[in-house]
């Protein structure tokens, strides 16, 4: 897989944002994790919402964001809520 946009949930705009924040490969995204990748994107794009966080996690897991487990969604929602004021 060459392009990040080949990953599930990652369109061309999110791929562009990932490149801007220094994430160019799936492996880099996986190592950094969805939360840290989202924080980097959020720092440059204040409109980054919870759905982008879900999309990043889904891309790491290789599944559509709507298929994330309930537990994963709850954990990400808790993280997102704790970061609302950054």
SSE order and pairing:
Blueprint: H1 12-20, H2 26-32, H3 34-44, H4 50-61, H5 70-82
Brief sketch in words of this structure:
Helix content is 60%, strand content 0%.
Under CATH, the homologous superfamily reads 5' to 3' exonuclease, C-terminal subdomain
Q: State the share of residues found in helices, binned by percent.
A: 55-70%
What is the residue-averaged pLDDT?
Answer: 95
Shape: globular
CATH topology: DNA polymerase, domain 1
The N- to C-terminal Cα distance equals 33 Å
Low confidence ranges: none
Q: What is the overall number of helices?
A: 5
The tally of structural domains comes to: 1
Going by helix content, strand content and strand pairing, the class is mainly alpha
Order of helices and strands: HHHHH
> What is the percentage of strand-forming residues?
under 5%
Instruction: Report the major sheet.
Output: none
Give a count of the beta strands, DSSP E runs of length 2 or more. Answer: 0
CATH architecture: Orthogonal Bundle
CATH class: Mainly Alpha
Radius of gyration: 12 Å
